[in-house]
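Much of our argument rests on the idea that a fold can be written as discrete symbols. Part of our work consisted of pairing the sequence of a single chain with a tokenised description of its backbone. We regard such an encoding as a compact summary of how the chain folds. The amino acid sequence and the backbone structure tokens for this protein are reproduced below.
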Amino acid sequence: MSMVRATRTAIRLSLDTPGPDAMKGSSRQPLPVLLVSIDTEEDQWEPTLDAPTTQNIRELPRLHEFLVDLGVRPTYFTNHAVAVEPESSAIIRDIAASGTAEIGAHLHPWNTPPPGADPLGRNTMLCNLPYALQRAKLKEVLDALTTATGSRPESFRAGRYGFDAQTARALLELGVRIDSSVTPFTDWRTMDEGPDFSAAPLHVYRTGGAAADVSRRTAKGPLVEVPSSVGYTRHPFVLWHRVHSAIDHPRLRALRLAGVASAMGLCRKVMLTPEGERTADLVALSSRLLELSPPYLHLTLHSPSMVPGLTPFTRTEGDVAEMLAGIRAVAELCRSRGGFTAMTVSEAAAWFAPTASRDTGRPLR
């Protein structure tokens, strides 16, 4: 892996604080690993057959400068629409050349060639497409990014988290061994028949081949999963997930019990993203994640949220500023507890699951 060499010299906010290598064999709590990944995509938020535009990518240098100033090594999961547009691909190429980030692959089935029948509805989930079409689209975006940046992507995230064992099989056949599509404690089946990741581990893990459930750990699995951080504002997460699932059951949803529990401060389910989540909740979830061992935080967002009006999360410049403040708050929380080790997605995969015979990531519940 070309970017993994930086793992053991990853940026640390406290230069006098030992990194992960130095912590081995030590009784001290290791520094948290902080990842920030960005779905880098077209301006259109909803799936559409209209030709995509990519004006939001002009804001990527500003976002990148902000993240690097925080000490973060971002991963930009970049889709076909961005890779083939000359101006946006040049911006991605410059970021890749800086050595301060990773360019991974991202895929929106509805605007990635080759075309297939009925590209909307349930087919906006990559995992719902026939295997051959999944593989063909994956190859197309990987080839486009290789042309745009000069390097083949080492990691992948499916648009709308539409990832399953057949998608994993296609990735492996195409030489990609790192995925970051899984969102623990989250069931996407009601959203265009997406996958169910409710039982997925919180931490980096290995998973199996074509017949395997990608939410399940496989000790010598060929694919490394680097999940986004999702959890609850209280421990233990598994208990509160059961409570949340029970009160958010479709038969009880009209009672809005999950919302009541959240409003009362009893417990709130939070995805570690500054889009649609309050900064206070990001800090609360991050605090709970920092109490687990090893501490691992993976914050995610979408590039079009940098432009007011393109996504539901940032309607104004003030919303954009608030989104960035949420990212800063998570980094500053880590700084207040001794600093963090910044990694890209591929670096985290190499650090926590360096070989198929050794899986240092543990289920964090």
Observations:
- DSSP finds eleven helices and eleven strands in the chain.
- The chain has one domain: 31-233+268-352.
- Residues 1-27, 356-365 have pLDDT under 50 and may be disordered.
- The CA atoms of residues 103 and 211 lie 29 Å apart.
